[in-house]
Amino acid sequence: METYSSKQTSWFLWLIVVFGVAGIVSLQLADIPKDEMIRSSILIGVFSILIFLLFFKLESKVFEDRVEIKFGIGLIKKTIDLKSVEELHKVTNKFWYGWGIRFTPHGWLWNISGYEAVQFKIKGQQRGFRLGCRNHEEMYQAIKTQLDKL
């Protein structure tokens, strides 16, 4: 049963779509051969749509025994079994860690906006895993509650 849910939307990806459309429009106005313009427009359009669909939101759900995380339409996803969690901490990411899926000095980071995150220490793994969230206090409490029940 789901006990907590958080969804974040990426305003930054909207900019990629806007720039993609602007690129396509500028190609239409440029003085280049029609074949090149069509290929370039299709490439820019497909790339912009693909990136948008893969990363436009980060959805996190806490269940009694696991945390499910997925980007965009769900092709990129991760499940953390709460039985494998050794430690849980509230953390604040450095701004240079960026957004998206990144490898940081603390392990993998999945983040879409802001700097707050919850860090998991998983059994058998040297580095942790950070999950970016809008309110790391709420996320931490939801996960900690389920961990205490195990």
Structure description:
This protein is α+β, with helices and mostly antiparallel strands and 150 residues long. It is built from three helices and nine strands; from the N terminus they run βααββββββββα. β3 (66-71) and β4 (76-81) form a beta hairpin. The longest helix is centred in the N-terminal third of the chain and has 22 residues, at 34-55. The radius of gyration is 19 Å and the shape is elongated.
Features:
150 residues; alpha+beta; 9 strands; 38% strand; elongated
Fold blueprint:
Layout (H helix, E strand, L loop, with lengths): L1 E8 L1 H19 L4 H22 L1 E7 L2 E6 L4 E6 L3 E8 L7 E5 L2 E5 L4 E7 L5 E5 L3 H14 L1
Parallel strand pairs: 7-9
Antiparallel strand pairs: 1-2, 2-3, 3-4, 5-8, 6-7, 8-9
Brief digest:
The chain is an alpha+beta fold and 150 residues long.
Query: How much is the average pLDDT?
Result: 89
Multimeric organization: single chain
- Whole-number tally of structural domains: 2
Q: Using the 3D structure, state the CATH architecture of the largest domain.
A: Roll
Low-confidence runs of at least 5 consecutive residues: none
The spatial strand order of the largest sheet comes to 5-8-9-7-6
Biggest sheet, open or closed, and with what strands and sense? 5 strands, mixed
In percent, how much strand structure appears in the residues? Answer: 35-45%
- The CATH topology of the largest domain: PH-domain like
Amount of helix: 25-40%
The shape, in one word, is elongated
What's the level 1 CATH class of the largest domain?
Mainly Beta
Q: What is the number of helices? A: 3
| Terminal Cα span | 14 Å
Query: SSE order in H/E notation?
Result: EHHEEEEEEEEH
Structural class: alpha+beta
